[in-house]
Specification:
This protein is α/β, with parallel strands linked by helices and 496 residues long. The chain has eleven helices and 18 strands. Strands 3-2-1-4-8 form a five-stranded mixed beta sheet, with helices on both faces.
Length: 496
C-alpha cells in the first residue's frame, strides 16, 4: 500500500559534532555552530539559537505530524560493549540486559542513554540455553538529552544512532574487519570493526587544520595512532581530505579507501543516514533517552491496510448495532407493547370516569361555600334549627338569635359577602321568656358566573390556626360554652 506522503513530512537527518550541528532536509542543508560548557553540555544561549535556526530551516506545517529526525552522534563519551545473554521472553530479556549493562558500565542504566543491536548467536546445543549476541552503545543521558530537547522543541521526533555506524552504509564491507577514520578539522574519530561489528570507538586529537608542524610529522602522528589500534587489512577514510602519502606509513600493508557521498554538500554521516533509511527504514542500533520499550512512529510507518480493516470492521459493527439491538430486545419490547395496550383500555375507562367527575364538580351547587359564609357571619351562641339549600341557589334558614341586633348584623354580613343577591328576614318572633328571637331567613345565591369571580374559602393562616390541637374541654369556634348549640337540621333540595 502506498504511503500517504502529503500527510507525512520528509525526514530530517542531523549530525551532532563537537563544535557544529549539520542538518539536511529534502534538498537543503544547514550547519550551525555549537557552544559547550566545560562538562560537554550545550549552553542555554546555544540551545535557544539552535532551536530558532532549526525552526526557520525546517518550516514545519502545523497540520502535519512531527517529522522524523534521524540523528548521528559522535564517539565522544560513547562506550561500546559486546554482550552475550540467554534468550527468553521479551520482558525477562530486557531485565537481564539492564542488569548486564549495570555490571558492565560505570553508571546505572537510568543515568545512561543506551541502545542495543542484535547480532545473532551461536546455535544452541542439546541441553543448553540459546545465547543472544548484542552490541550495546551507551553515553551519559544528559548529553543526548540536550539534543533530544532541541529537536523536540523544533517539532520533530528524534532517534539517535552512532555516526560511525551510519558511515558504514557508504560502501564498507559488511563482514570484514576494518578501521573507519573520519577526519575533522580539529579532531578525528576512529572506530574499529571486527567482522562488521563496531568494537571500539575513540576520539583522536588530530585534524586536518589543528595539527602543527611539517606535513610528514603530521602524517606520522596519525599513522602512529592508527597502528596502535587492532586492525585488519583495510582503512576507510571519510571527512576532510588528507595526503595519500599516509598509506606507506601504515603497518601490515593496510589498504586505504575513501568513503564519498553522491552529494558533496552532505557529510559522510548524513549521507550514510539517508542511505540507511532508504534501505532498511531504521538504524540497526537506536540510542534512546528513555527506555520505555516503545517506539515512536510516523504515519509512514503505519500499516494502513491493517488499520483500514479495523476501521471498516468498526463501521460495520456500528451500522449493524441498531438491528442487533432490535433482534435481541424484540421479546422484551413485545411484552412492553402488550402491557401498553392493556393499560390503554384501562386508561379509557379512567378518562371516562374522570370526565364524569369533572362534569359533576362543575354542575354541583356551591353548598360548602354557602356553609362557609354562614360560619363566618353567624354570631356566637346562635342556635340553628334547620337549613335548606337547593340547586337553584335558594336558601332557607331557621335559627334563634339572642336579640334583634344580632339578626340585623347577621343579615348585613351575608349581604356584604357578595355571595347572595338578596337576603330577606321573613319571620322574627321572640320566645315567651324574651331570651331569644326565632328567625326565618330566605336568601338567593348569585348566578354561578358571578360566584366564580369570588374568592371564598379559608386563608392559609386560618387553616394553620384551625389545625392546632384544641386544649381539653375547649369548645369549637363559634359555639358558646354557656349555651351549647344543638346540631342543625340541613336539608338539600334537588328539585329542578
Amino acid at each position: 500500500m502506498k504511503k500517504i506522503s502529503f500527510l507525512n513530512p520528509p525526514p530530517v537527518f542531523v549530525e551532532f559534532g563537537q563544535t557544529a550541528l549539520r542538518a539536511a532536509h529534502e534538498n537543503d542543508s544547514v550547519e550551525l555552530p555549537l557552544e559547550r560548557q566545560p562538562d560537554g553540555r550545550l549552553t542555554a544561549p546555544c540551545k535557544e539559537k539552535t532551536i530558532a535556526a532549526l525552526k526557520e530551516f525546517l518550516q514545519a506545517k502545523s497540520w502535519q505530524p512531527r517529522a522524523r529526525a534521524v540523528c548521528a552522534i559522535g564517539a565522544r563519551g560513547v562506550s561500546l560493549r559486546r554482550l552475550s545473554l540467554p534468550a527468553g521472553a521479551a520482558e525477562e530479556f530486557h531485565q537481564r540486559l539492564r542488569l548486564q549493562i549495570e555490571s558492565e558500565f560505570p553508571l546505572p542504566p537510568d543515568e545512561l542513554a543506551w541502545g542495543c543491536q542484535k547480532l545473532g548467536g551461536p546455535p544452541a546445543a542439546n541441553g543448553t540455553v540459546a545465547k543472544q549476541e548484542l552490541l550495546v552503545a551507551a553515553v551519559k543521558k544528559e548529553v543526548v538529552a540536550d539534543y533530544h530537547e532541541i529537536l523536540r522543541a523544533c517539532g520533530t521526533e528524534p532517534e539517535f544512532t552512532l555516526a560511525a555506524l551510519a558511515r558504514t552504509h557508504l560502501g564498507t564491507p559488511a563482514a570484514d574487519s576494518f578501521i573507519l577514520l573520519d577526519i575533522g578539522r580539529h579532531q578525528s574519530e576512529l572506530t574499529v570493526f571486527e567482522t562488521g561489528v563496531a568494537t571500539n570507538s575513540r576520539i583522536l586529537f588530530w585534524g586536518s587544520e589543528s595539527a602543527a608542524g611539517p606535513a610528514d610529522a603530521k602524517l606520522d602522528a596519525l599513522a602512529q595512532a592508527v597502528n596502535s589500534s587492532p586492525t585488519g587489512t583495510k582503512l576507510f577514510f571519510s571527512g576532510n581530505k588528507i595526503s595519500p602519502e599516509i598509506s606507506p606509513r601504515l603497518a601490515n600493508g593496510c589498504q586505504c579507501a575513501w568513503l564519498e557521498s553522491a552529494d558533496t554538500r552532505m557529510s559522510a554521516a548524513i549521507a550514510g543516514l539517508k542511505k540507511m533509511v532508504d534501505q532498511s527504514g531504521h538504524p540497526p542500533l537506536v540510542i534512546r533517552v528513555e527506555q520505555t520499550g516503545g517506539e515512536v512512529r510516523s504515519l509512514a510507518a503505519i500499516d494502513f491496510k491493517k488499520w483500514g480493516v479495523r476501521v471498516g470492521a468498526l463501521v460495520v459493527a456500528l451500522l449493524l448495532l441498531p438491528y442487533a439491538e432490535a433482534l435481541l430486545l424484540k421479546p422484551h419490547l413485545a411484552k412492553k407493547v402488550a402491557a401498553f395496550k392493556t393499560e390503554a383500555v384501562r386508561l379509557t375507562l379512567i378518562d371516562r370516569e374522570l370526565d364524569f367527575l369533572r362534569n359533576l364538580k362543575s354542575s354541583q351547587p356551591p353548598y360548602l361555600d354557602a356553609l362557609y359564609i354562614f360560619s363566618k357571619s353567624v354570631p356566637p351562641g346562635t342556635h340553628f334549627e334547620a337549613l335548606s339549600l337547593n340547586r337553584h341557589g335558594e336558601v332557607s334558614l331557621r335559627c334563634a338569635f339572642r336579640d334583634g341586633q344580632q339578626v340585623a348584623d347577621f343579615r348585613t354580613k351575608l349581604i356584604n359577602s357578595g355571595f347572595f343577591a338578596n337576603v330577606t328576614v321573613e319571620e322574627q318572633v321572640p320566645t315567651p321568656d324574651r331570651q331569644r328571637v326565632n328567625v326565618r331567613i330566605a336568601a338567593q345565591e348569585k348566578p354561578a358566573a358571578q360566584l366564580l369571580a369570588l374568592s371564598v374559602g379559608p386563608t392559609a393562616d386560618e387553616i394553620g390556626r384551625d389545625a392546632k390541637p384544641a386544649p381539653p374541654g375547649a369548645m369549637p369556634p363559634g359555639v358558646s360554652a354557656a349555651a351549647p348549640a344543638a346540631p342543625p337540621v340541613i336539608k338539600k333540595e334537588t328539585k329542578q
